[in-house]
Amino acid sequence: MSELSVSSRELEGVVLLYPSGFINAHTVSTFEDELQKAMGGGRFRIVVSGQDLRYVASAGLGALMGVIEEVRSNGGDIRIAELNETVGNIFEMLGLQHLYRIFPSEQEAILSFREGADTGIRDA
Amino acid sequence: MSERRRARPAVVLRVPSGTEFLATIRDTTKRVAELAGCDATLAAQVALAVDEASTNVIEHAYRGASDRSVELRFVLGSGELRVEIVDDGAPVDTRALPEVDLQRYASEGRRGGLGVHLMGRIMDTVTFRRTARGNVCCLVKRLGAGEPREAR
Predict the structure, then answer these.
(1) How far does A121 lie from chain B, in Å, by closest CA?
(2) What is the Rg, in whole angstroms, of the alpha carbon atoms belonging to chain A?
């Protein structure tokens, strides 16, 4: 069984990515491919929904860090939703809530894009 | 005899240096951490720290070569869980853990550098030394020491 699969769909102009399983140095290319697929199609409003994400190592966080500037410079953003406690703790431990908007639900993350391109992130 | 002298490896794991073995490392570490008394959340975090250290070995000390080996020694005792990650690859930078500026990393599109930072957030001490056997990264979690530190 693969350690990671990533499905996607588009809703209201927002690309939703659903990583399922474990993101680490071994699997991160699968996640990066999906990010690049969205961006390559000129879609820069992205929600990563973590409802089935069981684990993320720095490789996965680095994949997000590596593209966030490009996404935002194209008027979009990457927003995070539905993290479980383990993954949510990792984001908080690194202070990533100061870099990404994190929502309890996927729906809230999608709706947040109606507010405009502003990331809503202010310096900590 | 001191507690420290009585402490000895509880589990030794040696795996090939391919990233496909990171899952084995993660699962073993989590199980040992739970045996040491960590709750499930903390055990998962310790497993993440060891995953990061092992990834560093594969990517930096071995420069991606998958035909080497990574040895992990889990030591229980003295009120702590100690994990040593040993490799015989190229010497690694043993300086203090770097401070990470997330805003700068993002603006520069940097993908690396978070792993060591994460190790430092989860574990109580992270040290590197070079021995006759090679590089040793030593991660220590004091048991009953509370939750990992919050980001500053």
Answers:
(1) 11
(2) 13
Does A122 map to a domain? no
Please tell me whether the interface predicted TM-score (ipTM) of this complex is above 0.95: no
Chain A environment of B103 (Cβ under 8 Å): 98-99, 123
CATH number of the domain that A99 lies in? 3.30.750.24
Report residue A52: phi and psi, to 5°: -115, 15
Q: What is the 3-state secondary structure (H, E, C) of chain A?
A: CCCEEEEEEEECCEEEEEEEEEECCCCHHHHHHHHHHHHHCCCCEEEEECCCEEEECHHHHHHHHHHHHHHHHCCCEEEEECCCHHHHHHHHHCCHHHCCCEECCHHHHHHHHHHCCCCCCCCC
The amino acid sitting at A38 is A
Range of the domain at A89: 4-115
User: Which of A3, A24, A86 is best to mutate for the B interface (most B CBs within 10 A)?
Assistant: A24
Residue with tokens 């990264």: B137
Find chain B residues with C-beta within 8 A of A68's C-beta.
106, 109
Answer whether A66 touches B (CB < 8 Å): yes
pTM above 0.90, yes or no: no
Class of domain B8-142: alpha beta
Option in A25, A86, A123 nearest B41 (CB): A86
**Domain count of the fold of chain A:** 1
A92 within 8 A of B150, measured Cβ to Cβ: yes
Over chain B (152 residues), the average pLDDT of each successive run of 10 is 57 97 97 94 95 95 96 92 96 70 83 88 94 94 65 42
